[in-house]
Write a structure and sequence with these properties.
By secondary structure, the protein is α/β, with parallel strands linked by helices. The protein contains 13 helices and 10 strands. The chain has 2 domains: about 180 residues, Rossmann fold (3-Layer(aba) Sandwich), CATH 3.40.50; about 130 residues, Rossmann fold (3-Layer(aba) Sandwich). Helices cover about 45% and strands about 10% of the residues. The strands form 2 sheets. It has a 5-stranded parallel sheet with strand order 2-1-3-4-5. The chain is globular, with a radius of gyration of 23 Å.
Length: about 375
């Protein structure tokens, strides 16, 4: 009798422990929900890029209406950081400690991202698709951080090569935001020029707070730059082309993909964006791609038309996060950071509305095209 009772108690204990393991809590994940956070500049000097985060919100609304991911709906928490790293750190802390998110989707800005990457990694949170082409996210690789955006040095090298060998212009200047965002592009242009035994005629920095760029434009003109590569905020790009037009300076303007929302830039510059060459790594807004058409329908249904228009910045919020959603799907019902990481490492030539994305153990740069 006592032996039977002891055996029964032991069995109950084993089952209880097993149940406890099976029911172990995962931060930000419940049987019915997944909490995902994102920061983005809804106000401030980079507010035009804020639509990236709002695009992600519409993407998640669409997914939730379809039933969610493996039966779980996404709870999305967007915070405005004003493109200020100090505020990014504060909102990330709140989302980690108070909201308890499973991870972060996208997030605009190199300096804002750098302000919080250590906290994200330390807390074993997942972060997919930083909306910036900095090399910091993937090199060296971090277990839970997955970069989608092509590297700025790669992009700048491609643009520089295009200017040299397609446009046949050798007097190239580079104007850049004076932080890791701008310097990443500058590095690529410098390296490409050096590879062909050449140098940029001028490298000129811009501070985020600058509002008058007349002296910058005069320096570009005096240097005789035939082509000028811009690695700046949308507002600074508008100021540059506007000031140059007033001064009668007409170089070939070439822009980073961070300025690739052509209709928006055309309107912002009152038509002066005409003829600007820019990099891009996604389907265009009016693409006939079925997936793009589906996302446009989601925009029409869920977006606030008073604050948003359908364009590159908005649907980038879909594209940067598509691999994250695919990873959560592949992780299955047992979603936690470890199963998610393993699932992400199985992505090989994954194709959404951007270029093909691949990850693997030790490989965290998803796209380089």
């Amino acid at each position: 009798m006592r032996k039977g009772l002891i055996a029964g108690l032991c069995l109950a204990l084993v089952l209880a422990l097993a149940g406890g393991v099976m029911a172990a809590e995962v931060r930000g994940v419940t049987p019915t929900t997944i909490k995902i956070g994102q920061w983005g500049p809804q106000t401030g000097p980079a507010a035009l890029w804020g639509s990236v985060a709002r695009g992600t919100g519409v993407y998640f609304q669409m997914l939730n209406e379809e039933g969610g991911i493996n039966g779980r709906k996404i709870e999305y928490f967007l915070r405005d950081d004003g493109y200020q790293p100090g505020r990014t750190k504060a909102v990330a802390k709140e989302l980690i400690e108070n909201v308890g998110v499973f991870g972060f989707a996208s997030g605009v800005g190199t300096s804002p991202g750098m302000a919080v990457m250590e906290d994200i990694v330390k807390n074993n949170l997942v972060w997919v698709g930083p909306a910036t082409g900095s090399t910091h996210w993937a090199f060296p690789p971090k277990k839970t951080v997955f970069a989608v955006y092509p590297n700025y040095p790669d992009e700048a090298a491609i643009l520089t090569n295009y200017i040299l060998f397609t446009l046949k212009k050798e007097k190239i200047a580079f104007i850049y935001q004076n932080d890791d965002y701008g310097k990443g592009g500058l590095d690529g242009a410098v390296m490409e020029m050096k590879a062909h035994g050449k140098k940029l005629v001028l490298e000129i920095p811009v501070e985020v707070t600058d509002t008058d760029l007349a002296s910058h434009v005069l320096k570009l003109k005096e240097a005789g730059a035939e082509a000028v590569i811009m690695w700046v905020l949308p507002k600074h790009a508008a100021i540059l082309v506007g000031t140059a037009a007033k001064l009668g300076y007409k170089p070939q303007w070439v822009a980073s993909s961070t300025l690739s929302d052509a209709p928006l830039m055309f309107n912002l510059t009152k038509g002066l964006w005409q003829g600007v060459i820019f990099g891009n790594f996604a389907e265009l807004p009016d693409s006939n791609d079925p997936l793009m058409a589906k996302y446009k329908a989601a925009f029409d249904k869920f977006a606030d038309k008073k604050s948003d228009h359908w364009g590159v910045f908005f649907y980038a919020g879909f594209g940067f996060v598509e691999p994250m959603v695919e990873g959560m799907k592949r992780a299955g019902k047992d979603l936690n950071p470890d199963t998610f990481v393993k699932a992400m490492e199985t992505l090989k030539d994954f194709k959404g509305i951007m270029g093909k994305v691949s990850f693997a153990p030790g490989q965290r740069q998803g796209m380089r095209t």
